[in-house]
TrEMBL record:
Protein's name in the database: Alpha/beta fold hydrolase
One example GO MF annotation: hydrolase activity
Keyword Cell inner membrane annotated: no
Domain AB hydrolase-1: 4-225
Lineage top rank: taxon: Bacteria
Keywords: Hydrolase
UniProt xrefs under Gene3D superfamilies: alpha/beta hydrolase
Keyword Cell inner membrane applies: no
Length: 233
């Protein structure tokens, strides 16, 4: 049994992990899915959230020890959390995500607007590099209905990492969905794509799960199995 903390990406709350969490619990794992600060639609102060407040929320939710699973844009706060308290994470699993490097901004063109909503069309979402492969119309409708805009302090501010290099020693697994692991590693080595650059300093394992950018919906059982296996290493 492992204690697993699930962190969703942009526009999503803990609900996005429901199917994966159920499958992990069937394996005997203890699972917590986290709605990050800024992504709770009922929080009147949510737009004041920052990457730093999200990272600290992850540390608090981890307790004494957890396997941290981060999806998509959640990888930024997750990686920051491993720098704040590396001893609290027995492993980090990035699901179609990556450890975001110092100074990188997820949405650099955000400007002075207060938040970053889900784009109005699915074509715009895919044009951002987010494959919708494997998602049916009911899933897309639920996504659209429940999506919450991302505060500017999260989407439009640069990542800041702690001075400690201990985060680099946290065991790391990268589950590659939109891009095959062979391509991710080539982009990592070339150093030209910022979101993969930090992987050069990590001794990570790479697993393939061919699907779109939201594997928790397109292949929840398969994703849960890979997370469970990684957590047991």
């Amino acid at each position: 049994m492992a204690r697993i903390l699930l962190v969703p990406g942009f526009w999503l709350g803990a609900w996005a992990w429901d199917e994966v969490a159920e499958q992990l619990r069937s394996f005997g794992d203890e699972v917590t899915a986290l709605t990050l600060p800024g992504l709770d639609p009922d929080d009147p102060d949510r737009l004041s959230a920052t990457l730093e407040t999200q990272a600290r929320a992850i540390v608090d939710a981890a307790g004494e020890s957890a396997v941290l699973v981060a999806h998509s844009g959640g990888g930024a706060a997750a990686y920051m959390a491993t720098g704040l308290a590396p001893e609290r994470f027995s492993r980090v699993v990035y699901a179609d995500s990556a450890p975001i490097p110092e100074g990188h901004t997820l949405i650099p063109a955000l400007g002075d607007v207060p938040d970053f909503p889900l784009p109005q069309t699915w074509k715009e979402v895919e044009d951002m590099g987010n494959s919708l492969a494997g998602l049916d119309e009911p899933t897309l409708a639920r996504f659209r209905e429940r999506a919450v805009s991302v505060p500017a302090g999260v989407a439009g501010r640069p990542v800041t990492l702690s001075d400690s290099a201990a985060r680099l020693k946290v065991p790391t697994t990268v589950i590659c969905c939109s891009y095959p692991s062979e391509l991710v590693q080539r982009l990592r080595d070339a150093g030209e794509v910022p979101i993969f650059r930090e992987l050069r300093d990590l001794d990570a394992e790479y697993l393939d799960l061919p699907t779109g950018h939201w594997p928790m919906w397109s292949k929840p059982a398969e994703l849960a199995e890979l997370i469970h296996e990684a957590a047991g290493r």
